[in-house]
Amino acid sequence: MAPLTEETPSKTPNYNTALRDANKLEPAARFVLSNHLLLRQGAQKLAAKDYSQSRQLLTQVETDSPSAVQASLLIAESYRLEQQPEQAKDWFLRTAHHYPYRTQTLSGLFGINCDSSERCCAAILSNWFCKLCRWR
């Protein structure tokens, strides 16, 4: 699968058409595909540095979809890139809180570029590990 931010070589995908066509699918397939399309579209907006539009699309991803962790991490990353470290930290912590047992969460948390504050990274990872330990 192509990276989420990679554009199609000949043209940018028509997400509105794809989302409309997804409505013709069975409910489970529609759920997965429509959320993934929103995730991909939001990731492309993020790559284009359209942070506000990216977040608007990513917040439409349903929290129980397979795309939810990535969407949440991308929202956090959009705030980090926009030099809003407190909002970024809040979203990283929210991700760790809501999805503590998904491997994507751990890899996303370890992939944080903590240029704003090492304490921020320590707090996020500590929160995640504490939640995981309470579960066991």
Highlighted features:
mainly alpha; flat; 7 helices
Brief summary of the model shown:
The protein has about 140 residues and is an all-alpha fold.
If you had to describe this structure to a student in words, what would you say it looks like?
- By secondary structure, the chain is mostly helical.
- Helix content is 67%, strand content 0%.
- It has helices at 15-22, 27-47, 51-58, 68-81, 85-98, 103-110, 118-135.
Largest sheet: none
- What percentage of the residues does DSSP assign to strands (E)? under 5%
Structural class of the helix and strand makeup? mainly alpha
Kindly, what is the distance between the CA atoms of the first and last residues, rounded to a whole number of angstroms?
34 Å
Report Rg. 16 Å
Instruction: Give the helix tally.
Output: 7
Mean pLDDT: 77
Low-confidence stretches: none
- Tell me roughly what share of residues is in helical segments: 55-70%
- Give, in order, the helices and strands: HHHHHHH
